[in-house]
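Narrative summary of target 7.
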Amino acid sequence: MTPTSHVTTRPPGSHDAVIVIPGIMGSELVDVTTGNTLWGLADASWYVSAWTTGQGLRNLQVTDPDPEREHRRVRATRLLRFPAFMPVLTGMEPYTRLMERIAQVVQRPEALRPFPYDWRLPVAHNAALLARVIEAHLKAWRWRAESHGPGGNRARVVLVAHSMGGLLVQELARIPGALDEVRAIITLGTPFLGSLDAVRMLSEGAGSPFPLPRRRLQALARTLPSVYELLPAYRCVQDNGVLRHLAAGDLAVDSDSVPSDRAAVRTLPLPGHRCLVGLGQPTFQSMTLRSGDVEVHHGIPDEHATAGADLLDHSGDGTVYRYSAELRQAERTYVHQSHGALARCKEAMDHVCAVISEDDQGAPLGGGELGLEVPDVVHAGEPFTFAVTGSQSAGASCYVVDLSTGGVQESPVLRYGDATHGGRRAGELLLTEPGLYRVAAAGGSGSPVTRLLLAAGRGDKP
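Modeled conformation, tokenized:
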């Protein structure tokens, strides 16, 4: 009698647990008492009203210095499901696509867990919550995975962190044992060494082309502990031909708001770390102070060059300077995409899924080598200029999506410039109605590069 052979097969998908950690603006916030949604609303017109009238912004201010008490007033309920907008930082795309893609490469739906958090509060506070979630999620997943058949190696954790979410993961390195069961960490556009946009949030207002939204942003940002933790930790201030670190006095804020040890903390090594870095987008990298006013620059001086030499533009994702998003100990990959859209573009999602499933990642990313210059706030009914840059700008086409309706609002034509000389082509665009819009530049082999902008009503003009 021929013996029967029993073949045991591993269920499809990664055996590990996965936690997705969003960036600043990336979690829906709800008032615990009323149940009202304070951030992450489906109605795109809310952002027009909020930033032009101030209505709804007061409830987002941090009113209690104790994070635990503030946590009892406002609760993060889930990851962002609809596009959100904030001046200077522009927009954050929802995480729906990323979650759907990851769900395809894990063994069971229960292996995937989002980690919404109150992005207004200190990084250390949210990192402590994250450490507890990692422990609980892994324990629950191991019980499920190992009680439903063979699982091969003991399940561990993969962390996928976008933007400020990576700072929470970095903070875990200071919590004993918090990273012991982590197999891999993927950061998407994390500002390990900060962003000049945080300086702009805290300082801009008067003198801006659109001062009302910026002044309201400044009033809000100055109450948010998280914004201070996004301030540059590298030498970014040009001062009499010398680069120095940002000081609290440069922004007229309390000295405790700009801790001096941030760079050392932010460069601690992380297990299995892969940095995905956005490139090709105009990104502020250094600043000067003129009569107390902040002036930011798309470049940074070469410290080995003579005084007065041109700035070197290292680019970035439009929010995070390239070398702020990289850690030397980590494996680095690059994609031409804006900060808010990094977690939504195909190249980044493919990369995340390859790391989770431990598949061959193939050639480096790179994308379509396009950059997109778009204002963050414009006035409806008034034309404005935008530009597409990069080596593939010659064949680029553009389109605009009205996020209130989902329809294509305009198909602007790039009429000005020569892609063969400097790789920059400009066009003019007019949005007739106030609202939140997604501007996209498509071309070449990569995903379209996208940015969100807000069109304010003509009556909102100061």
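Residues 283 and 315 are 6 Å apart (CA to CA).
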